[in-house]
Write a structure and sequence with these properties.
- The protein is an all-alpha fold.
- It has 3 domains: about 1-35; about 35-160, Cytochrome c-like domain (Cytochrome Bc1 Complex, Chain D, domain 2), CATH 1.10.760; about 165-280, Orthogonal Bundle (Cytochrome Bc1 Complex, Chain D, domain 2).
- It contains 11 helices and 4 strands, in the order ααββαααααααββαα.
- It has helices at about 5-35, 45-55, 75-80, 85-90, 100, 115-125, 175-185, 210-220, 230-240, 265, 270-280, and strands at about 60-65, 65, 255, 255-260.
- The protein has a two-stranded antiparallel ribbon with strand order 1-2.
- A hairpin with a 2-residue loop joins β3 and β4 (about 255-260).
- α2 packs across α6 and α9 (about 230-240) packs across α11.
- It is globular.
- The termini are far apart.
Length: about 280
């Protein structure tokens, strides 16, 4: 290739690349309203964004992977935790942690109820933006670290694909227990996003280590408010009616309403719920 051919090739390549970039840019802007749920940007969402910036949340947290990395990415936090949990947490984060055990906590921002509600609306809007599955969730925890906003803090490479302790489930096993483990990890939202299976590793929900034994103890307690008669039906009740029994003073409910989503009874089939119960019943 002589100099003239090389120059023409460079010019042609630049033109083609520029046209491709321009076309992709135009196509991206064409899709932005749909991908970002622009129709759902209410005054509350806009004000919530202002609250986010006013309190410098980005100095510790990230959205869509952008921001500081001291604390967890909050892109999908509204889906993983729910509005009730986030509102209670933002009102007083200290109630959700033991500072001596979990080291530095998220500071109390002293926001008004309106600011908190609108910030949650903003995070809810963010969680529904089509971000093509990034950042990946859930982060599975096999240790006791807990990060701000109730999200798990990964411990030495345990994020993502780390196996969870529990009943052995050989590859290809189609037993109810094995299928229940799959439901535990892949339901929406995933149980593993809020519950650890490690003793003492409290996340947005309590550790489920020993949950079958605790279930039997709970239904035998005078304080039990539900309708279950044994550990299995208690586990079933806890999944489909999480507010049937709550523990006063615990950080997982407020005013008798559990922070756990009450949608699993509709989102999971009866067979999936039975499989999940069979899996959880192995943790004694």
């Amino acid at each position: 290739m002589n100099k003239r051919q090389a120059r023409l090739f460079a010019i042609g390549s630049t033109v083609v690349a520029s046209l491709a970039f321009l076309g992709l840019t135009i196509d991206s802007h064409r899709q932005f309203p749909k991908l970002t749920n622009a129709q759902n940007i209410t005054p509350a969402v806009t004000h919530g964004k202002d609250v986010w910036h006013k309190n410098n949340c980005i100095n510790c947290h990230t959205l869509f992977g952008e921001g500081a990395y001291y604390a967890p990415d909050l892109t999908k936090i509204a889906q993983h935790r729910g509005a009730a949990y986030l509102q209670a947490y933002l009102k007083d984060p200290s109630k959700f942690y033991d500072e001596q055990r979990h080291r530095r906590l998220m500071p109390k921002q002293d926001m008004t109820d309106v600011e908190i509600a609108d910030l949650v609306s903003f995070l809810d809007w963010v969680s529904k933006v089509d971000n093509q599955g990034w950042p990946p969730r859930p982060i599975l925890v096999t240790g006791s670290g807990i990060g701000p906003m109730g999200a798990p803090r990964p411990i030495e490479g345990t994020a993502g694909s780390a196996p969870l302790p529990g009943a052995a489930t050989p590859a290809g096993d189609k037993s109810p227990i094995a299928l229940g483990e799959i439901v535990f990890k892949t339901s929406t939202p995933a149980c593993a996003a809020c519950h650890s299976l490690v003793p003492g590793a409290q996340m947005a929900g309590p550790s489920l280590a020993g949950v079958a034994t605790r279930a039997q103890q709970t239904i035998g307690s005078a304080d039990y408010k539900g309708q279950a008669k044994d550990a299995t039906t208690y586990l079933h009740e806890s999944i489909v009616q999480p507010s049937a029994h709550t523990v006063a003073g615990a950080m997982y409910s407020a005013s008798g309403v559990s922070f756990m989503p009450a949608t699993y009874g509709k989102d999971l089939t009866p067979e999936q719920i039975d499989q999940l119960v069979a899996y959880l019943a192995t943790f004694k």
